[in-house]
UniProtKB/TrEMBL annotation:
The keyword Cell cycle applies. This is Centrosomal protein POC5. GO terms for biological process: eye photoreceptor cell development. Belongs to the POC5 family. Residues 31-65, 158-192 form a coiled coil. It comes from the Eukaryota.
């Protein structure tokens, strides 16, 4: 009887220790992943801000070139605008790839949670089978108490994982909204530069017409 009691207590301790280790490992992994995602997001936002600053400088250069009515400068700026468009297109493709990469990671994380949940359910079944084969009386009461405790821990872990997945999903949606806003601002800057460029061309045409008429 004493030997069986020791075995039961050891088994219970091992189960609780294993569940605790799983929980700690998952929490640590989640913290590292969130820190990495925050760093990547901050770097990406900084990159977008730099691109916006470059667009502002390019717009300012366009205004200077129009005021000088210098065709050479306008040609150079047109080429620079084409290069800038290429860079923006590459940045858009990279952003789409990064969003897809985050979705893939999220799916992998969800699959890992599902596999662990399946393993936990399997442990419950094994525990139930062992309990049914054990003796009645106080042994059955100890087994029932251990099972209830394990089920509570499993339910708590499942709730924590679902909350983490929801938080990651909300973060992803927020980043999508920020990216869409940045694209909208970029389109507005491009439209402004195009209008400024057309105004400059019209001014040059009027000046040329005036010169021909005066001659």
């Amino acid at each position: 009887t004493n030997c069986i009691t020791v075995i039961l207590l050891t088994f219970q301790t091992n189960i609780l220790t294993e569940l605790k280790n799983w929980k700690l490992n998952l929490i640590q992994h989640h913290k590292v992943q969130m820190r990495q995602e925050k760093e990547k997001h901050a770097a990406h936002v900084k990159q977008l801000q730099n691109e916006m600053e470059n667009l502002k400088e390019l717009l300012h250069t366009y205004e200077i070139s129009i005021s000088r009515k210098d065709e050479v400068v306008i040609t150079n700026l047109t080429q620079a605008l084409e290069k800038q468009k290429e860079r923006v297109e590459l940045m858009r493709k990279f952003t789409l790839w990064r969003i897809q990469h985050i979705k893939t990671k999220q799916e992998e994380y969800a699959n890992t949670i599902a596999a662990r949940h399946f393993r936990t359910a399997l442990m419950k079944k094994v525990w139930a089978a062992w309990r049914s084969a054990s003796e009645v009386g106080w042994k059955d009461k100890v087994a029932r108490a251990c099972q209830l405790r394990a089920e509570d821990v499993c339910v708590q872990l499942t709730n924590d994982y679902e909350a983490k997945i929801a938080e990651l999903t909300a973060t992803l949606e927020q980043r999508k909204a920020e990216i869409l806003q940045l694209h909208s601002e970029r389109d507005q800057y491009e439209d402004t530069m195009k209008k400024a460029f057309m105004r400059g061309v019209c001014a040059l045409n009027l000046e040329a017409m005036t010169m021909f008429q005066s001659k």
